[in-house]
Amino acid sequence: MFELRPHHLLCTQGYSGKGYNDEFVENMNFVVDKLRNVPGTKVNLVCNTDVLCSKCVNKLDENQCLTQDKVAEFDRKTLEVFGLEETEYVYSEVVEHIKSIATEEKLDYICGNCSWHAVSACRHNILSK
User: Fold this and answer.
1) In the list 28, 43, 44, 120, which could disulfide-bond 14, CB 3.0-4.6 Å?
2) Are strands 42-45 and 2-4 parallel, antiparallel or unpaired?
3) Phi and psi for 62 in degrees, rounded to 5?
4) Dist CA 33 CA 16 (whole Å)
5) Beta-strand pair 2-4/64-65
């Protein structure tokens, strides 16, 4: 099981091998491969630093990010829009739930301020049901 920020449910769907540095990309590759390819993989949603944050250049300390307010807002909006809670989910099931109700407007509301929004495949991968 991986601890995962709620908004990282969206990021992991659009991830395509790009990142802040080699260490970050290596960690993302490992986690995303497990989430996408190991049936039944569970995630525990947490609104603080998670397995992806662990290798991020923006992580300052536990539950402290260089862009803390922004990522906290991404998490809050993800929980709100998709009716999720800080609890355990099967990754593939929660992703299907997200895809079933996602719209361009909802993703713009959540991800509009994301620096990766314009260059990632999040929107395409989530909306291609």
Assistant:
1) 120
2) parallel
3) -60, 130
4) 11
5) unpaired
Higher model confidence: residue 125 or residue 48?
48
- CB of 111 closer than 8 Å to CB of 74: yes
Percentage helix, strand, coil for the chain under 3-state DSSP, each rounded to 5: 50, 10, 35
The encoded tokens of residue 123 equal 């929107």
Of 82-91, 95-104, 115-124, the least confident: 115-124
Q: Exposed, middle or buried by CB within 10 Å (0-12, 13-18, 19+), for 42? A: middle
**Sign of the alpha-carbon dihedral angle for 9, 91, 87, 28:** negative
d(CA 66, CA 68) in angstroms, rounded, equals 6
pTM for the whole thing?
Answer: 0.88
Supply the angle between the helices 91-101 and 68-82 in degrees, to the nearest 10.
80
Rounded Cα gap, residues 66 and 15, in angstroms: 21
More confident call, 32 vs 17? 32
